[in-house]
Amino acid sequence: MKQETRIGLKPVVKWAGGKRQLLSIIDKNLPIELKKGEIKTYIEPFLGGGAMFFHIVQNYNVEKVILNDINKELMNVYRVIRDDVNSLIKYLKNVEDEYLYLNDENRKKYFYNKRQDYNMNKKEDVETAGKFIFLNRTCFNGLYRVNKKGEFNVPYGRYKNPTILDEVNLTNVSLVLKDVKLYSVDFENIKKYVDDKTFVYFDPPYRPLDATSNFTSYSRSQFNDDEQKRLKNFYEKLDKKGAKLLLSNSDPKNTDVNDDFFDKLYRDYNIKRVFANRMINSNGNNRGKVTELLISNY
Q: Among residues 180, 185, 182, which one has the least CA distance to residue 70?
């Protein structure tokens, strides 16, 4: 289901830890079986913004794609784009026209009204998907974060001319999602779809590098160290099924050279450190090159 590269697909939502800037590096570390056309199924258990998915379908031939994320509202966005993109475009066009006409103070009020409405009326429908995209495009830093009640709580972001509707990209994304299976279940539930002709790319919520860089609250459940260990055990099960596996995560050694959490956890696999631009704490001055981990079983 390879799509023409010229389509120029890009993620529909901004997402903390998104992989767009690392795609060229990740591409060099993809399994040779994928490049030779021997991989039949591609699976992402932690979809997020989907940059890796869009890269795969534009550059490689796979027969089957399965995408999953525990964030039900996020997966509703992808389902609506796949099944009813024209209604979504219409909704976003109306919102964009209303929002961009307002001054900053009224935009702020509009944002918080939409946020409250979104939190009170979440459904698996076009309107909820539209609110999700609007909030993602106009909130602070494009983050998606929820509190323990599962309520989206990112504040207003002051963007002069945000792109709320990208009609061309939405239409193209709808086309590539046409035959894709979309789920919102625990990552272990994808095991039944995996065989020795499968490539699985894991991009779980990153282990925080410090107390102020916790970007794991994509859903009301926290992805702590116990979850990281559960994921490693699942990785091992899929390895035994003969699947090709690649996993990304933060490198604890950026802030503590003695932190061997992942080196010990994945000691039986290939661990490579690559450079990425990340903000490793709440201070914007601390943006810069940090290493991230790519862990493969090939």
A: 185
Q: Are 164 and 92 in contact (CB under 8 A)?
A: yes
In this structure, what token pair is assigned to residue 172?
Answer: 């193209």
Q: Topology of domain 83-169, per CATH?
A: Adenine-specific Methyltransferase; domain 2 (1.10.1020)
pLDDT digits (tens), the chain, 298 positions: 666 545 689 999 998 777 888 999 999 999 999 999 999 999 999 999 999 999 999 999 999 999 999 999 999 999 999 999 999 999 999 999 999 999 999 999 999 999 999 999 999 999 999 999 999 999 998 888 888 888 999 999 989 999 999 999 999 999 999 999 999 999 999 999 999 999 999 999 888 766 555 444 555 567 899 999 999 999 999 999 999 999 999 999 998 999 999 999 999 999 999 988 755 444 444 456 789 999 999 9
User: pTM for this one?
Assistant: 0.91
**What CATH code would you report for 5-70+185-209+222-296?**
3.40.50.150
Q: Find the angle CA(242)-CA(244)-CA(250) to the nearest 5 degrees.
A: 130
Cα 119 off chain centre by: 21
- Which two three-digit tokens encode residue 175? 């086309």
Maximum alpha-carbon separation in the chain: 58
Question: Can you tell me whether residue 78 is helix, strand or coil?
Answer: helix
User: What gap in Å lies between CA 70 and CA 48, rounded to an integer?
Assistant: 9
Q: Which amino acid is at 265?
A: L
- For the chain, the domains span 5-70+185-209+222-296, 83-169
